[in-house]
């Protein structure tokens, strides 16, 4: 079974014909480690689904400090959602931590599929809700949990991140220094 079909069918069921039509709206993209798929200031017209690899969405503050908003591994979606939805310039960058194989859909094709197939509208609605819940939990964790608790929760929920991602990036995601992460992680 195609991995995108498996992913979509976690939420909705599809016929072979429906899936082939959906897949016809996606295009493959390969990027190497350290390559960007979105850079701050660019127009954003694509949403990406990770087939293989790992990416990060981030921004740099005025002091040049990197802040990581999200990691995206296999079966995850990533883009600058504000820029994608509002058709504005990116305020974040998304780059590859590993060599990546992606599928992307344009804004217009996503809107077309949503209007033509109620199933896909339900799929994206559910994915959006799940993403919002994850973001809400992350914000609450940043507000109420200690650095140690945030580290433990991340490691419990996504242990593979600690095997695949440099510790300095995990530290930037958690909002701690690399040294602090080393003390928490050992």
UniProtKB/TrEMBL annotation:
Residues 137-164 form a coiled coil. Residues 33-113 form the Cyclic nucleotide-binding domain. Pfam families: cNMP_binding. It comes from the Bacteria. Keywords: Coiled coil. CDD domains: CAP_ED. This is Crp/Fnr family transcriptional regulator.
């Amino acid at each position: 079974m195609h991995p995108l079909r498996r992913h979509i069918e976690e939420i909705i069921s599809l016929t072979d014909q429906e899936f082939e039509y959906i897949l016809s709206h996606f295009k493959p993209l390969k990027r190497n480690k350290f390559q960007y798929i979105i850079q701050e200031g660019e127009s954003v017209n694509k949403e990406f689904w990770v087939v293989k690899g790992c990416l990060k969405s981030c921004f740099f503050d005025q002091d040049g400090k990197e802040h990581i908003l999200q990691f995206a591994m296999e079966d995850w979606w990533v883009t600058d959602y504000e820029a994608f939805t509002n058709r504005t310039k990116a305020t974040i960058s998304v780059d590859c931590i590993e060599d990546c194989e992606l599928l992307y859909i344009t804004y217009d094709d996503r809107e077309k599929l949503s209007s033509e197939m109620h199933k896909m509208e339900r799929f994206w609605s559910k994915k959006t809700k799940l993403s919002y819940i994850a973001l809400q939990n992350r914000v609450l964790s940043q507000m109420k949990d200690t650095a140690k608790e945030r580290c433990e929760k991340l490691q419990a929920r996504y242990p593979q991140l600690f095997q695949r991602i440099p510790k300095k990036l995990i530290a930037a995601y958690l909002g701690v220094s690399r040294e602090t992460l080393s003390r928490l992680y050992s």
